[in-house]
Amino acid sequence: MFERPEGGERAILVHLAIQSEHHREASSEFLELASSAGADPLLTITGSRQSPNPRFFVGTGKADEIKQAVIDNEADIVLFNHVLSPVQERNLEAHCECRVLDRTGLILDIFAQRARTHEGQLQVELAQLKHLSTRLVRGWTHLERQKGGIGLRGPGETQLETDRRLIGDRIRQLNKKLSRVQKQRDQGRRSRKRAEIPTVSLVGYTNAGKSTLFNRLTDANVYVADQLFATLDPTLRRVALPNTQTMVLADTVGFIRHLPHDLVAAFRSTLQETKDADLLLHVVDITAEERDDTIDQVNNVLEEIGASKVPQLLVFNKLDRLGDDESRIQPRVDMRADESGVEIPVRVWCSAKTGGGIDALLEAIQMRLQPLSALVELSIPPSQGRLVALLHEHGRIDSERYDDNGNWCIQMDIPLADWYMFCKKHQIEQYLLQSNLEKDEPEVLV
Question: Which residues lie below 8 Å from residue 424, measured CB to CB, with a gap of 6+?
Fold first, then answer.
C-alpha cells in the first residue's frame, strides 16, 4: 500500500543491550514473540550500544552486518526487539532492502492474527492505524505534480496528505463503533452491580496460564496454547463458590513488557472489566526465570489503566512443571492480617493443568469476597418452614438448632444479592438477631 518491501516468514532477529535503557527487553521473550507471530527465526544478531543511533538505531557496522545476514540467509524480514522511530525503520528498510518491523509492530501483528470477535478486530484495527499513521511514506508521487496543460494538473493535496486524511476518517469511525460497544459493556456491568454479583478478573503476564485456569474454574472451552497472546478476546462466565455465592469470572488479554500505548488505548473498553472488578486474580508462572519482574510489569500496566487500587490475589500457577530435583512446593494458601486484624489469603499455589489446589483457590476467592456476603444469625418461628428450606438453597448453614420456643436458630453465610431478595420478598429482617452488616434497617437492606 505504501511501497514498502513485502515481508515473509524467514526472519533475522536483532537484539541489542542498550546501556542507557533502565528496562531492557529479554531476548528469550523476543524469540517467543517471533514464533507466536508465525516467523521462522533464522539468526539472532546481538550487540551492545551506549545509546541508539539516530539513523539506524544500530551502528553503521552492525547495519552492514544485518544486511549481509539478510543476503546470506535469504531472509524476508528483519525483526527488532526494540521500538524504532519511523525514520529509523525506513532507513533500515532502504539499507537492507527488505521489510523491517520493530517490537510494537510485531505485537500488533500477533494481535491481528488472534482477534476473533467483532470488538477485538475493531480494537486491533484502531491500534494498527494509529501506529501506521506515523509511518506513512510517500507513494504515488506522480499524482502530486503541478504542470500546465490538459490532464497534467495534479490534485491540491499530496498523496501523503490523502493517506493521512483517510486514516483519520477511519479512526473516527472505529472510535464511534467502539463507543457503542463500550455502552453495551457498561450496561452489562451495571446489571451485575444491581444484582450484587461480584466480578473477578484474571490478569497476568502473557502465557502465565490464565486461560487454562479459566477453563478449570468454569468448565469452558476457550482457546489454550503455549504461546504468547493466545487469548485476545475477553470471555465472561458465571462460577459458583463453595458457599453457593455466584461470581462472574473474566478472562482477559495478557500483559507484556512495554505493552504498546496504542494497544492499551484501543483495548480500554475491554480492560474496563479489569478496572471495575471486585477482585483481580494475578496469575504468575512459577517456573518463569524473571518471575518478580513479570509481576512488576503487570502492576505497571494495571496502574496505567487505573486498576492499581483493585484488590489482588496472587495465584502462582504451573506447579506441575517443577522438576523432581526442585524443592517441591505443595498447593497451599498464604495468609496475612488485613487492617482490621482479620486473616485474608494473599497468595495461592496451584496447578491449573492438573487441578491441584483449585479447591483452595476457590476458598481463598470466597474469603476475599466475604464483604459481599452477609453473615447472619436468625431466629425463625416454626410456621416459616418454607422460608428455612429456601435459606438452605441460597446460603451456607454454619449451625442450626432449636430454642426453648421451638424457633429455628440459624447461623449462615448468604450472598448479599440473595439476602436483599429475602428482605424484600419475605421481610426476613424481622427474624434477624445479628449480622456483619453495618445497618439492619429494612430500608437500608432493600
Answer: 446
- CA 302 vs CA 178, 206, 255, 298, 346: distances in Å: 21, 14, 9, 6, 18
What are the backbone angles phi and psi of residue 206, rounded to the nearest 5°?
A: -60, 140
Give me the pLDDT at residue 90, please: 87
Across the strands, what pairs with 316? Answer: 284, 349
CA-based nearest residue to 377, from 433, 417, 430: 433
Contact (Cβ atoms closer than 8 angstroms) between residue 89 and residue 82: no
Neighbours of 135 (CB within 10 A): 16
Residue 305 DSSP symbol: T
The mean pLDDT of the chain is 77
Grid cell in block for residue 42:
533464522
Q: What is the dihedral of CA 193, 214, 293, 104, to 10 degrees?
A: -90
Give me the pLDDT at residue 440, please.
38
Q: What is the pLDDT at residue 1?
A: 37
User: 374: which strand partners?
Assistant: 414
Could you say which residues of the chain have pLDDT below 70? 1-8, 20-26, 135-160, 189, 191-196, 220-234, 258-270, 323-332, 337-342, 371-372, 437-446
Cell numbers standing for residue 347: 497468595
- 55 exposed, middle or buried (CB, 10 Å; 0-12, 13-18, 19+)? middle
The DSSP bridge partners found for residue 19 are: none
Q: Where are the beta strands (DSSP E) in 267-331?
A: 279-285, 312-317
CA-based R_g, the chain, Å: 28
Model confidence pLDDT, tens digit, residues 9-66: 888 899 888 776 555 566 777 888 888 888 888 888 888 888 888 888 888 899 999 9
- Please calculate the CA angle 371-373-377 and round it to the nearest 5 degrees: 115
Distance CA 99, CA 93 (A): 6
Q: Sheet containing 312-317: which strands, arranged edge to edge?
A: 235-240, 246-251, 199-204, 279-285, 312-317, 343-349, 332-337
CA distance 352 to 284: 11
Q: DSSP 3-state assignment of 385?
A: helix
What is the rounded distance in angstroms from the CA atom of residue 226 to the CA atom of residue 206? 10
Q: Are 14 and 80 in contact (CB under 8 A)?
A: yes
pLDDT in tens, 127-171: 888 777 776 654 444 445 444 445 544 555 566 677 777 878 888
Q: Are 108 and 260 in contact (CB under 8 A)?
A: yes
Cell of 168: 483519520
Residue for cell digits 418452614? 385
Phi-psi region of 146 (alpha: psi -120 to 50; beta: other; left: phi over 0): beta
